[in-house]
Design brief:
Blueprint: H1 2-15, H2 24-27, E1 29-37, E2 43-45, E3 52-57, E4 62-70, E5 76-90, E6 93-99, E7 104-112, E8 117-120, E9 126-131
Antiparallel strand pairs: 1-2, 1-3, 1-9, 3-4, 4-5, 5-6, 6-7, 7-8, 8-9
């Protein structure tokens, strides 16, 4: 009986681990910041965003992130700069390694699905995104 109980606990703990590889397929696309939770615990909610983030990931786990400004006609105005990155799975985490002409940094994806994206940076600030949905004007 004791062995069965220990086996159940081990199986339960193993099945609860998240597989960060499944996050990759959900990263591609248009994301809007919904909320930021600072390391201090303070929260900032965003009801409107002037800019959204566009992520593009290739099969080689390389990609870029670009800031876009949505326009009323349904198109976007793009910034001239894009942040190139590589994705790496390390220690059961999916990390984004950015490289620009000015800096290098790492962020970790905590959660990614079709409905949400959570990223933590080196300062322990958590960025919570939702899929971008254009504002409809009739």
């Amino acid at each position: 009986m004791k062995r069965i109980f220990i086996t159940l606990i081990i199986l339960t703990s193993l099945s609860c681990k998240k597989n960060p590889e499944t996050y990759i397929e959900h990263l591609n696309g248009y994301w809007e910041i919904e909320k930021v939770i600072l390391a201090s615990g303070e929260e900032h909610s965003y009801n409107y965003n002037e800019f959204i983030d566009y992520f593009s990931v290739s099969d080689s786990l390389e990609g870029f992130r670009k800031k876009l400004r949505p326009l009323l006609n349904g198109t976007f105005e793009a910034s001239k700069d894009a942040e190139q990155f590589n994705l790496k799975i390390e220690h059961d985490s999916l990390n984004i390694y950015y490289k620009t002409d000015f800096s290098n940094w790492k962020e970790t994806i905590l959660q990614a699905s079709e409905n949400d994206l959570k990223i933590i940076n080196k300062d322990k600030n958590i960025y919570i995104y939702k899929p971008y949905k254009p504002i409809k004007t009739n």
